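User: Please fill in residues for this 125-position structure.
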């Protein structure tokens, strides 16, 4: 596995542990449908949370969460809509970003809840 891929996997594992430690239930990791993927799908207090995890070895140039551009947000929203449809779910959702910084533990982890708004056209509303 390439070094940057291994860093991403470790970052996603650290993010999942971070959420579990804070009483989130992890429902899915690396959930895929077609070309769409969600890093983590979690639940807490009846809220379904779709999480994008961004991992960087350092933040000298840009913060990890700044890598979640409009195109990535649209893909995450489409993946969430597909998940709700496939699982036949009708519940409130939230989109979060977790940024993981560092090449090895202990990582610096930032959890950005409600990282972006659910669009009015979102199917799961």
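Assistant: Residues filled in for all 125 positions:
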């Amino acid at each position: 596995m390439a070094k940057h891929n291994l860093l991403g996997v470790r970052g996603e594992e650290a993010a999942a542990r971070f959420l579990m430690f804070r009483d989130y239930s992890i429902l899915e990791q690396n959930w895929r449908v077609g070309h769409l993927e969600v890093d983590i799908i979690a639940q807490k207090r009846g809220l379904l949370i779709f999480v994008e995890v961004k991992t960087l070895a350092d933040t000298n140039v840009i913060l990890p969460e700044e890598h979640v551009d409009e195109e990535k947000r649209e893909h995450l929203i489409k993946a969430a809509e597909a998940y709700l449809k496939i699982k036949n779910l009708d519940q409130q959702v939230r989109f979060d970003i977790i940024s993981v910084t560092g090449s090895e533990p202990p990582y610096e982890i930032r959890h950005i809840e409600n990282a972006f708004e659910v669009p009015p056209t979102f199917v799961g509303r």
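For context: The first strand starts at residue 25 and ends at 33.
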